[in-house]
Sequence to fold (206 residues):
Amino acid sequence: MTTQDIQVPLTPDSVLADLKAGNERFVSRRPLLRDWIALAEESAKAQHPKAIILGCIDSRVPVEVIFDQAIGDVFVARVAGNFVNDDILGSMEYATQIAGANLVVVLGHTSCGAIKGAIDGLEFEHVTGMLANIKPAIEAAAASGEELDSCCDAHVDRVVEENVRTAVHKISRESSVMASAIAADKLRVVGAIYELSTGRVHWLDG
Fold:
């Protein structure tokens, strides 16, 4: 569990390295052994997570598990399609500027149902407005004029990547406090894609 004494000297690069090592343990079937109840009791007093990870609600992407993290190690925000809006930005600002985390990860995943629904133009109650947040990524992925097909894995994965990159850019563009922290090398924002079939996290530009 990340305590304040552990959190304070951490750097964005050291936290990123820790998450990469955790995913390698997960993929290699060598997760750390932990006393979960003891961690729950200890973390009830305070929390000092080292990162905030924005993931999709997909049940096949249990964020703490795939990075082999303990109770109290990471903040996790989840929304279908892992897009960024004001509520997510506020959560990230709290996690980084108030609670001390110094790494933000935007985590997409292969075969994302929200991405497929957005490509298909799915309209249903509040789902319609939610999927509208993914349209910029679809437009970027289809910039060549090619019509995207939700049944084509390559097309879906292209939008998944564009959607992660769009979210990463939006964080620094729309949050002045996080942009300042990034400029001062106190915060890093990175994108990644989780591969459902292998359990491996692929990092974009980092």
Notes: The chain has a mean pLDDT of 97.
